[in-house]
Amino acid sequence: MIEVCKLIKLFGAKKVLRGMDFHAQEGEFVALLGPNGAGKSTFLRILASLSRPTAGEVRVAGYKLPGQAAAVRARLGVVTHQPLLYGDLTAEENLRFYGRMYGIGDLNTRTDEVLELIGLAPRRRDLVRTFSRGMQQRLAIGRAILHDPDVMLFDEPHTGLDQDACDMLDNVLREVAARGRTVVMTSHDLARVEDLATRFDVLSRGVITASTGRNELRGNLLDFYREALAI
């Protein structure tokens, strides 16, 4: 579902990604780990067609970026540090707006389902600008899963969530994974991703420096992470 070969990304003279190779199969849940500034968010933005690669080849769901960005976006769900919501619309109106963009059938039913799943049904008619950061993050997650995309990208999605909301997100992630969707999620919470992901990759110095499956970790995720970063 995701194929990346020799990916390079420059910001001026600074090389953030240095010939990065990456792949994810259908149904894989990849936790992308790494220190601040390693390029994790930049990489997800490239996969989401929000940033253009400087060099290299990137394919998502069989489509090449950046040339086939529209086809890729139709198959993606994305949660970034920006919620990408409209503050002067209600929670319900935001979901219906995005649902119409994706051509979702029976949109009313799907909107109701998502609002219940993310715990915002009681606030469905409140303006988003009145929501807390955590509530906006909940709604952003709802926006991302609304159209049941094939590939989901989550950039530090637990940021700003209280414990109840974190548990809600974990349940959503497990449901998405159970449906055979491909998930790539950046995180610093090693204990949390250990129970969610099926594969763990470390991005350091602009390339993937280590990769392992859940079964190989045997509860030693922290040691694996330290070894991959040489710390």
Question: What can you tell me about this protein's structure?
Answer:
The chain is α/β, with parallel strands linked by helices. The chain has 2 domains: 1-75 and 150-161 and 168-231, P-loop containing nucleotide triphosphate hydrolases (Rossmann fold); 86-148, no CATH class. The protein is built from 9 helices and 10 strands. It has a 6-stranded mixed β-sheet with strand order 6-7-8-3-9-10, with helices on both faces. It has a 4-stranded antiparallel β-sheet with strand order 2-1-4-5. Helix 3 (91-101) packs across helix 4 (107-117). The model has no long low-confidence stretch (mean pLDDT 92).
Task: Spell out the key features of this protein.
4-stranded antiparallel sheet; 6-stranded mixed sheet; alpha/beta; globular; Rossmann fold; 35% helix; 231 residues; 2 domains
Helix and strand topology:
Elements: E1 2-11, E2 14-24, E3 29-33, H1 40-47, E4 55-60, E5 63-65, H2 69-73, E6 76-79, H3 91-101, H4 107-117, H5 133-145, E7 151-155, H6 163-178, E8 182-186, H7 190-194, E9 199-204, E10 207-213, H8 214-217, H9 221-229
Helix pairs in contact: 3-4
CATH homologous superfamily caption of the largest domain:
P-loop containing nucleotide triphosphate hydrolases
Number of separate helices: 9
Please summarize the sheet with the most strands.
6 strands, mixed
The CATH first-level class of the largest domain comes to Alpha Beta
Quick one: how many beta strands?
Answer: 10
Structural class: alpha/beta
Terminal Cα separation, in Å?
A: 32 Å
Roughly how much helix do the residues carry, as a percent range? Answer: 25-40%
The fraction of residues assigned to DSSP E strands is: 25-35%
In angstroms, what is the radius of gyration? 18 Å
What is the CATH architecture assignment of the largest domain? 3-Layer(aba) Sandwich
What order do the helices and strands follow? EEEHEEHEHHHEHEHEEHH
Basic shape: globular
- Rounded mean pLDDT score: 92
- Please name the CATH topology of the largest domain: Rossmann fold
Strand order of the largest sheet: 6-7-8-3-9-10
